[in-house]
Amino acid sequence: MKTVEVVAAVIERDGSVLATQRGYGEFKGRWEFPGGKIEPGESPEEALTREIREELKAEVAVGRLVYTVDYDYPSFHLHMLCFLCHLVGGYALLEHEAARWLDAATIGSVDWLPADFGLIRSLKAQGIVREGVTSMRPCRRRFGLRGHRG
């Protein structure tokens, strides 16, 4: 089975994390942490910085590795390194349908991709995601831009 090496940004703000809804592909409509594939010659941190620029037109401060996911989908094995990150400035949705800041009380309210379940449990256990710090209001598209994967 093919292994796909990816990185994910756990973008944290005051006990909430930024979740994004996929806007394309087999898992369109499901929720995930933003990120993507590690290209040859890139470090995981470099890949994450590049992916967040491409997906969210944003800069992030990449922090520590908080979780590693190994998950078997029907057609591939996912190996995902998940880093705690903080936004530096604003963002715009270029590839996703929607985004929401979710705390411990609301993080289960969206339809997550199955590979993210263990990560979510870990974020709660580590105290990265806490209760009572956010509402479920959707984030607004800052610039109204959309992109696609070619």
Please supply descriptive tags for the structure shown above:
single chain, 150 residues, mainly beta, 7-stranded mixed β-sheet, 2 helices, 15% helix, globular, disordered C terminus
Write the layout of secondary structure elements.
Blueprint: E1 3-13, E2 16-22, E3 31-32, E4 35-37, H1 44-56, E5 59-72, E6 77-88, E7 96-102, H2 117-125
Parallel strand pairs: 1-6
Antiparallel strand pairs: 1-2, 1-4, 2-3, 2-7, 5-6
Explain how this protein is built.
By secondary structure, the chain is mainly β. It has two helices and seven strands, in the order E-E-E-E-H-E-E-E-H. Strands 1, 2, 3, 4, 5, 6 and 7 form a seven-stranded mixed sheet that branches. A hairpin with a 2-residue loop joins strand 1 (3-13) and strand 2 (16-22). The longest helix has 13 residues, at 44-56. It is globular and about 40 Å long. 32% of the residues are buried.
